[in-house]
Specification:
cell cycle, eight-stranded mixed β-sheet, double-stranded DNA binding, 14 strands, alpha/beta, Dmc1, Rad51_C
């Protein structure tokens, strides 16, 4: 069951609690259902302590990882996985079923009509959207706008849900949320209450914050996870070519976790990325820059957007890579302030 928004007497919108809604089906199967399949409640608690709160999420982990959880033997893990397979279907489905599953995808408005049209309706759930560009190109401003638009009801092109914000650069400003909320006709206090925020200082801290999100998303209706920025701490904590392989491996593990969160809880993941100089860009390219993170990050992102400054307050967005959107299409837009 997901949340919805109700109109208050003063014409503002406020998010309702999950338990107030009873006409929507759950998008995932709670890990507690394993008990009915004969799994010991103590073993279920061990899974929860390891950050696994749904049967869907359980099936996204390897048996090698599960046996690494203290107190779970290989025999127990085999039994747990067999029980989970009876609850959720992770085998083959038909193309028609896949199309039906895609109907659960929610597109969240960016606050810009031009940008929404470019993205086919907005930022998608069950997907990772990456935006990269120089400083002051609009990446973090879009993140702040999405914090508000995600809380709009679906008939207003919102996501009917809460927002989780992981800040690695110290750029989140709650005072910027206030005018955006007022622009959308929402109560700023309620909007801020429905955003959970964490400041990460190391790449390990960043990953642990993702692990802790599963418990919250299993209990409350979240629709958006923002990581701003995804690469900053990795560039600080790993230095030189000697640590590059280790950095990319750790980055891949974190990106894999983001992908699983997006699909497990039907949330949109919006992550910002930095750019680096591209010496191989060639002398005929006026501004040779490329997104940081290499191929590992490139393959993890579902949709990649390139931002750059335009005239005045305008920003230009170009679809750099997407499975279902035309490539190299650029537009100019002004973000909601």
């Amino acid at each position: 069951m997901i949340a919805t928004l109700k109109a208050e007497d003063q014409g503002q919108l406020q998010l309702m609690e999950r338990e107030d809604i009873d006409d929507e089906e759950d998008l995932f199967e709670a890990i507690d259902k394993l008990i009915a399949q004969g799994i010991n409640s103590g073993d279920v608690k061990k899974l929860q302590d390891a950050g696994i709160y749904t049967c869907n999420g359980l099936m996204m982990h390897t048996k090698k990882h599960l046996t690494g959880i203290k107190g779970l033997s290989e025999a127990k893990v085999d039994k747990i996985c067999e029980a989970a397979e009876k609850i959720v279907n992770y085998g083959y489905i038909t193309g028609s079923d896949a199309l039906l599953k895609r109907k659960a995808v929610v597109r969240i408005t960016t606050g810009s009509q031009a940008l929404d049209e470019l993205l086919g309706g907005g930022i998608e759930t069950m997907a990772i959207t990456e935006s990269f560009g120089e400083f002051r190109s609009g990446k973090t401003q879009l993140a702040h706008t999405l914090c508000v638009s995600t809380q709009l009801p679906t008939h207003m092109r919102g996501g009917n849900g809460k927002v989780a914000y992981i800040d690695t650069e110290g750029t989140f400003r709650p005072d910027r949320i206030v005018p955006i909320a007022e622009r959308f006709g929402m109560d700023p206090g309620s909007v801020l209450d429905n955003i959970i925020y964490a400041r990460a200082y190391t790449y390990e801290h960043q990953y642990n914050l993702l692990l802790g999100l599963a418990a919250k998303m299993a209990e409350e209706p979240f629709r958006l996870l923002i990581v701003d920025s995804v690469i900053a701490l990795f560039r600080v904590d790993f230095t030189g070519r000697g640590e590059l392989a280790d950095r990319q491996q750790k980055l891949a593990q974190m990106l894999s976790r983001l992908t699983k969160i997006a699909e497990e809880f039907n949330v949109a993941v919006y992550m910002t990325n930095q750019v680096i100089a591209d010496p191989g860009g060639g002398m005929f390219i006026s501004d040779p820059k490329k997104p940081a993170g290499g191929h590992v990050l490139a393959h993890a992102a579902t949709i990649r957007l390139m931002f750059r400054k335009g005239k005045g307050e305008q920003r230009v967005c170009k679809v750099f890579d997407a499975p279902n959107l035309p490539e190299a299409e650029a537009i100019s837009f002004s973000l909601v302030l």
